[in-house]
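Can anyone check this?
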Amino acid sequence: MRTVAIRNRNEELQKEVKLRTKELEEINSAKDKFFSIIAHDLKGPFSYLLSNSEFLAKEIHNINKEDAGFLSSNINLATGNIYNLLENLLQWSKFQMMGLKPDPQKIDLTELIKTNLALFQPHAEQKKIKVTENVLPEIIMLSDENIINTILRNLLMNAIKFTRENGSIIVTAKKENNYVIISVADTGIGMNAAQINEILYSKSVVSSQGTRNEKGTGLGLYLIKEFIDAMHGQLKIESEKNKGTVVTCVIPAE
């Protein structure tokens, strides 16, 4: 009997070691991806920004207003993408070094959503995307404002990035049973089941290009998932290729 018990215990330990090894491999893979973002994906947008701004500076007197406006629009879009990427890298590095240490405070989610919508409206207009807001007034919650802002910023940035010109985005939010429910629906390029499962159930980073060939690092959804899990919430994704995506965040209101 004792021999059987020892053998069973050894088998359990081996399974535990395999599980921990797999988790470490996934974490190391994610870290390798982030170093790749810093080394390559961050360099790419900067090169694009520099080349466009250099051309505009040299040829400003030789090009018409329409071309100048187009170049300026591209520069603005690239700058916004770089800023968002840097913000995400900063948030991820803090999360890795110190873990998630929320600073709960009373916040008006409705106002935060309106602020972020105003921030990203110029990006949507550049792609002629119609953004509709269906947010209930005065949704009050007790949470970390920086974390909620990071979630909102990445939801909107992804929706704009992966929606084609003349598409649409609908942002909804409500409070229900001590949870706030935020949904962003778009008419973008969508995802298949394998991509959704990888985002929801693995620690890998899923990346793809936007509809204007914007660099997609996958870091935004990764951060959203990490933050929501740490707050004991839930991330839901419904999507169909070439039809659109609905990303829903269920977050404790207190």
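Reply from J.R.: I decoded it. The beta strands are 105-108, 130-135, 140-143, 168-176, 179-186, 234-240, 244-252.
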